[in-house]
Amino acid sequence: MGIELPKISDLFNLTGKSALVTGGAGSLGSVASKALAGAGAEVMLADECGDQSRLNIVVKEIREGGGKAHAIHVRADSEEHVATIMKEVVEKQGGVDILMVASGWNKPGNSQQVTVQDFDAVMEANVRSTFLISQAVGKRMIEQGRGGKIVLTSSVRGLVATNNSIGYCTSKAATDMLTKCFSAEFAPHGIRVNAIAPTIFRSPLTAWLFEEQGRGAEARKSVVQRIPMGRLGEPCDFVGSIVFLSSPAADFITGHIMYVDGGFVTV
Q1: What is the DSSP letter of 4?
Q2: Residue 59: is its pLDDT beyond 80?
Q3: What are the structural domain ranges in the chain?
Q4: Could you tell me the CA-to-CA distances from 7 to 12, 242, 253 in Å, in that order?
Q5: Is the pLDDT of residue 56 over 80?
Q6: Contacts of 167 (CB under 8 A, 6+ apart)
Q7: Which residues contact 67 (CB under 8 A, 6 or more apart)?
Q8: Which of 20, 35, 80, 174 is least buried, going by the fewest C-beta atoms within 10 A?
Q9: 14-198+233-258: CATH topology
């Protein structure tokens, strides 16, 4: 008797799922929100950007494309704010099946340059906030009793140390361990926890690296020498990994750090 395989279209179908994306106005968060909505999920975007119109624009684009999306202008940086976000996503979408943590921050500098305040700020943005929202969503998913998917955002710098990034590298190494700890704890409840780990990709913070001439071009050349595929990342490079890890196709994958890096960590 042959094994009946699921339809490929069903494996990546998120219709009827409720998704929450933190950092929804950012370069990665906006791509994640559009990708999840494009696969059929209803998406709540949470962010506290200085210009609220950025978040509203992403929601508008999703709706104009036939998707379902909502916005809450709150950052997941405290227990109170996380509670507010959870209340909103439950009221608007009936619960949460997918969490994508796309929020984060970096303060470049080596050990002699970064202040304790800067180091703490990076750890709070990248580790503490990730813990708080994952903790709350995990609790809700357990109560719902239907499993779920949590996708965190790590970095190649969680595995490979680089100059002038002591706070960021440390925070992403911690994110990797959060991924593994949450995955081990939540697996019996059918909740899968994984992370994507990009190399440098195009965003407002890295735009200077994409300049055709000047210091950006020189710096990019140095970085790209380490990447076998010969280029930096683009936001669209993460669509497949985000949808995959959020979908039924990844039902037997948990605790995994997926490097979306053009081969950076292989050399």
Answers
A1: P
A2: yes
A3: 14-198+233-258
A4: 9, 19, 19
A5: yes
A6: 106, 107, 109, 114, 118, 119, 122, 123
A7: 34, 37, 38, 42, 43
A8: 80
A9: Rossmann fold (3.40.50)
